[in-house]
Design brief:
- The protein is 0% helix and 50% strand.
- Strands 2, 4, 5, 6, 9, 10 and 11 form a seven-stranded mixed beta sheet that branches.
- The protein is globular, with a radius of gyration of 13 Å.
- The termini are far apart.
- The mean pLDDT is 94.
């Protein structure tokens, strides 16, 4: 299984970015997908998950600003990030897991290599 992210970059506060993640080798649809991030000097955290039944879950820090979506036919996951803040600066990782919720490390079976998002004030 391989997860490949794209779409990171640098943006000013208030701007938007859309991250994409293409999966290969996933043979079952019973996976959750999600995004983790790790900012400078911070612990890695799960920020958003989409379950196999398309239920979405967001942590409070991104709720209302970020939107996760999935195109099953393309095996692609998206993260639309609006109203970006400097504190959103982090490496963002696409993840997939056999569990029902991809917000916790223990639920994750597969990780992408990460894409950097930098938000300047």
């Amino acid at each position: 299984v391989q997860l490949v992210e794209s779409g990171g970059g640098s943006v000013q506060a208030g701007g938007s970015l859309r991250l994409s993640c293409t999966a290969s080798g996933l043979t079952s649809s019973n996976y959750c997908w999600g995004w983790f991030r790790q900012g400078p000097g911070k612990e890695r955290e799960g920020i958003v998950s989409i379950d196999y039944d398309s239920t979405t879950r967001y942590v409070d820090s991104v709720k209302g600003r970020f939107t996760i979506s999935r195109d099953a036919a393309k095996s692609t996951l998206y993260l639309q990030m609006n109203s970006l803040k400097p504190e959103d600066t982090a490496m963002y990782y696409c993840v997939a897991g056999r569990g029902s919720v991809c917000l916790y490390d223990y639920a994750i079976n597969y990780w992408g290599q990460g894409t950097q998002v930098t938000v300047s004030s």
